[in-house]
Amino acid sequence: MKIYLIGYMGSGKSTLGKILAQEQEMNFIDFDHFLEEKEGKSIAKIFEERGEIYFRKKESEYLNELLQGYDNTIISLGGGTPCYGDAMERIKAAEGTSVYINVGVAELTQRLWSQRDHRPVLKHQDTPEKLEEFIRKHLFERSYYYNQAAVKLMVKGEPVGELVAQLQQKLF
Question: 2-103+146-157 domain in CATH 3.60.15.10?
Answer without folding.
Answer: no
